[in-house]
Amino acid sequence: MRNNRIGFKLGVVIMSVFLIVLLSLGLAIDRMFTNFYSSEMRTETEELTSHFAVMAESPDTTTEQMMSTFAEFSDVSIFNVSRDGSVKLHSGLHDSADHSFLQASSLKDIFAGKEMSFVYKDPTGHRYFVTGKPIYEGKSVGSALYVMSSTTNMEQSLSAVRNILLLSGFGAFILALGITWIISQILSRPLVQMQKATRNIAAGELETRLTIRSKDEIGFLADAINDLAVDLQRYRDTRQEFFANISHELRTPITYLEGYAKVVKDGLYETEEEKNLYLDIIYQEAHRIQHLVDDLFDLAKMEEGKISLSLDWIDFAQMTDQAVRKVELKAREKNIKLKVHHRGTAEMIRGDGKRMEQIVMNLLENAIRYTDVGEINVQVNFETESAVFIVEDSGIGIPAEELSFIFERFYRVEKSRSRAYGGTGLGLSIVKMLVELHSGTIAITSKVGVGTRCEVRFPDIQRK
Ligand code: ADP
């Protein structure tokens, strides 16, 4: 019962309502039968009294004998009472000595020509239905005729009806109790299951799933709990993967740093040139760690939704030109040509300058990083509704089956290949989030061995 309180409460409520309905229905039926039997008896006794009155008024001398026989046959008692209260004729089972039902006032009324009916209880507790009627002798009332009909038969019938009512009420109660128990079980069982499941999920058993399939609020709640468990599981898995990736990404440059720093510290080099080469590696690896930490910091802030754009009017064309200039040196070192084209009328647009530059720089650096020969074409287009930035390289390209994953954190095409190029695997996921923060879109198309095309579109831009 401890785990099934809702069922219990529901059962108590249903049974209370049921009992109230059952009791009022029982009382109503009992009243109905009582009224029915009483009115039947009243009509019957009154009819009998009329018959007796007609007989009594007849001048025939055998009347008394007939009345007695008829009274016996009809199972009633009759009293023919004279004006002074003395009984002229008595017949039937009721004790002839018991005259307490004869009230002076009622007798007076009957002799005044009135008729009456009432219920009388004799000294032994028996109840009778009594009807009084005047017997005329000529034009005046000669005597009063009382007919007493015992209510015993009626009470026996009523008690039989009551027994049937009680029995069927009890049967209905037991049936309702059973049905209520089943309903409360049906309703409370899934709730108990959900309570257990959520406790298990809270305890870290994220594989827990509910199998409640009902298409109602309970089923929807179970679905929501399942979705929550799936989300938590995914979150836990990606978090584990995320930390594994970070450790891996940090471990490699740190090993380099440790190794080469030790070589330099212990003087394990032969020429000054060799020493500079090692210091160069140390510098590059420290730079890589710096880059990784910056990226991680950005990513964490974005995922928590804590990054907010500081919007300003940006000269987008000038900003992209500056970014191209910054990476030009790297491109020249690799003998790659960098070409920039502008289309449309350059305008000031609303955005976060630092973040927009981060997007542009990231895409330009990727293009240079993954291109060994050829050229990189950069386009800045001002269209009617949007500002578009396109970088097209003639690099190694991305296999079609991997294209859909490149925006995932730490995702790299051919892990070893990317490491040789020096990326962190975080760049594009940050770019995508920043583009979306500007309500923009990013699309990448690529062909292995031919090159990659990245297109960033900032739609609905505000212009000065
Ligand atoms: P990374 O820091 O490793 O470059 P990104 O998130 O920027 O990480 O990119 C994800 C992966 O997509 C890279 O590891 C690389 O394999 C691939 N990639 C990105 N840009 C290009 C490009 N211009 N040409 C070829 N491959 C690319």
Automatic annotation (TrEMBL):
It comes from the Bacteria. Residues 185-237 form the HAMP domain. Keywords: ATP-binding, Cell membrane, Kinase, Membrane, Nucleotide-binding, Phosphoprotein, Transferase, Transmembrane, Transmembrane helix, Two-component regulatory system. It catalyses: ATP + protein L-histidine = ADP + protein N-phospho-L-histidine. Residues 245-462 form the Histidine kinase domain. InterPro entries: HAMP_dom, HATPase_C_sf, HATPase_dom, His_kinase_dom, HisK_dim/P_dom, HisK_dim/P_sf, Sensor_HK_Regulatory, Sig_transdc_His_kin-like_C. CDD domains: HAMP (cd06225), HATPase_EvgS-ArcB-TorS-like (cd16922), HisKA (cd00082). It is found in: Cell membrane; Membrane raft. GO terms for cellular component: membrane raft; plasma membrane. One of its GO terms (molecular function) is phosphorelay sensor kinase activity. It is a multi-pass membrane protein. Its EC number is 2.7.13.3. The chain crosses the membrane at residues 6-29, 164-183. Its main location: membrane. It holds the Pfam family HisKA. This is histidine kinase. It comes from Paenibacillus monticola.
